[in-house]
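Problem 3 from the worked examples.
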Amino acid sequence: MCGRYTSTRAPEDLTQIFQVTDWNPAETLAPSWNVAPTDEVYAVLDRPARDDGEECRRELRALRWGLVPSWAKDPKVGSRMINARVETVHEKPAYRRAFAKRRCLLPADGFYEWDPVKDEATGKTRKQPYFIHPADGQVMAMAGLYEYWRNPDITSDDDPDAWLTTCTIITTEATDEAGRVHPRMPLALTPDHYDTWLDPQHHDTDDLRALLTRPADGRLNARPVSMAVNNVRNNGAHLLDAAT
């Protein structure tokens, strides 16, 4: 499960890290220390060439978190599809088409998970948030899928409101310190796998699944942080302050 994460890097930095060729400044997102489902998030994806002989275009896009399948009758279903399990993502009806054709990377500084802790003074159980992040401070490239949904209430395909583009995060069994907090975690790819994962012409399910291996031990740190992150309306760097 990944239900909240941080994304504070500037788009100019992300375009360099992921070798993006196309980015629209109109889609600039504010830094967020409390990204929540249905928020717009940055996604890196490769789009097929328009003409023969052209290379794929690598784009940095702002997508809504929570995948809405093309066949969905109501986009509200996306709020329940923020994660896709790596064990079944290639075969589930909601994800299998996107897994074959529309894969992306979702940049993050780190993510949050919650650990139930009993308060000895009151006897009540509270959920203590932990910030889990790469030990070396590098960006996490979370494996994701994206999908297009056509709004049937809008007649013109040229109307930008006719199309909704959404995404989901692929999760795996937790390793490193993350496993002490929660059994699941986002699946992050290493740079040597970016090109293959993003290639829209690569449809071999077995090859793609081979990229989605559990990350090596020792790459993640986890630390308890402010309870303020529990409220999705709270945002700012103070959310990463040490728990008191």
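Problem 4, a separate protein:
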Amino acid sequence: MRILILNVNTTQSMTRAIGDSARQVASPGTEIVELTPDFGADSCEGNFESYLAAIAVMDKVVRYTEPFDAVIQAGYGEHGREGLQELLDVPVVDITEAAASTAQFLGHKYSVVTTLDRTVPLIEDRLKLAGLTDRLASVRASGLGVLELESDPQRAVAAIVEQSRQAVEQDKAEVICLGCGGMAELEEQVRLATGVPIVDGVRAAVTIAESLVRMGLSTSKVRTYAPPRPKSVTGFPMAPAAAGSVSF
């Protein structure tokens, strides 16, 4: 089984960290291929960067020429999952939805701890669209930018731990979702500080993607995620449909 995992930004070190995290939970025989978009921002922290990333991720996937069995979009609260589902005939899993759905098996209420406050509405909207807000206790911001997770890891740990503690104590969360693809390595430290289960979206997405492939399931094509209708698309950067995708 081969799973493509797409970083939504252009920071190569973050792509490698996402790939390494994914491999830690991948089953024997599952190949994880991490990919970085060819264009876009070095971090995604707002609507403009998120929409740009959606195009870049779709472009990267359709240009991939080898066979693959599933795709993971490794951006928290980012746009683009629906477009991938239209283009591909393999399962597409978004880490935001993967983390939240997994959290609901582990406790009554869950909270998301993310980066900047401006990203909170994007995450809330993504969870609402996915029908995952009924048991959402809160979405909290650590106040750190995505790139600060790498440049100042000690400060990142302290800020994320503090917001996670407040989510448990004040918002009554029983599970914490780490709200950024680059937070995977903080999982154990946050768990020890809060005493609750911690869900990393990348790892959750890998296990869900593997399960869907093993069950022979993929996106329904009868209506919402039917392939794009054949038509002329002027000036769009995406190449014609490639391996694992639906022609349009």
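Solution to problem 4. The first helix runs from residue 12 to 25. The first strand starts at residue 2 and ends at 7.
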